[in-house]
Amino acid sequence: MTLAIEVNAVSKTIKKREIISNVSMKVRAGEIYGFLGPNGAGKTTIMRMMLNLVKPTAGTISMSGEVVDGKSAYLKEIGSIIEYPVFYERLTVEENLVLHCRYMGIEMKDGVDRMLEKVGLKGAKDQLISELSLGMKQRLGIARAIIHQPRILILDEPINGLDPIGIREVRELLLMLKEQGMTILISSHIVSEIESIADTIGVIQEGRLISEVRMEELKEGSRSGYIIGVKDAGTASQILSEVGRVERVNDRTIIVFNSVLSRHELNRLLVVGGVEVERIERKESNLEDYFINLLKEGKRHA
Question: Domain named ABC transporter: which ranges (predicted)?
């Protein structure tokens, strides 16, 4: 397994307050890593440390095997959007990209037009930045971040301000970039979007990484099951404990996970055992459920 980004026991203290606490995370090369957490959890600070914009108080960060420090040359291989992209307001879309290419020391020629077409802005290349909507600026920010074909792309909430069509287009673009070998670290508050593209997710809360899990493992260990309403949850739990993992919600409700039995077979077992069944409903779990439950558990043990 080749790592594109490795964060090792990183902490950050500001004014005697620890805002990042002993965070370690691994981003595999050529994959999409989804970074989840509520506002203020520390996602942006960690991304800033990866880009050498903020210095960690403790720990190290490596990008493509190179330790991040003031002398690092790795930034030429990184594309990024941190918070909202900023442009020269009195220049056009095209002029902003051309200027960025010159700054990066690359010759694009026809590449600017191709990049604007890729992000859905070809028809806006002559517009001033001041005339663009927030969503258009987000698209231009992505274009600027990838125009030099970086090995690693770091995106902090890249779909802010986009309509549903724009969100879908960005999703398809990121998947295409992954297929081309690019490593992508993306944070978002839209959990469903992370679920649709990520290979690995990391969940951060109050500066602590509380989970890092592969999506394939999450799907294999899905908490899908059946919610069952009964007259006697205690007896029902005993009966069904042999055919699945049972969680007792209250005196009249249980949830059965990982059972190979159908709804009708579960009902029959309970009836034969003398338990009156009121309802059986299928419960489908997803990343959003996992994320919310993690945050609840994190607060409980804080």
Answer: 5-231
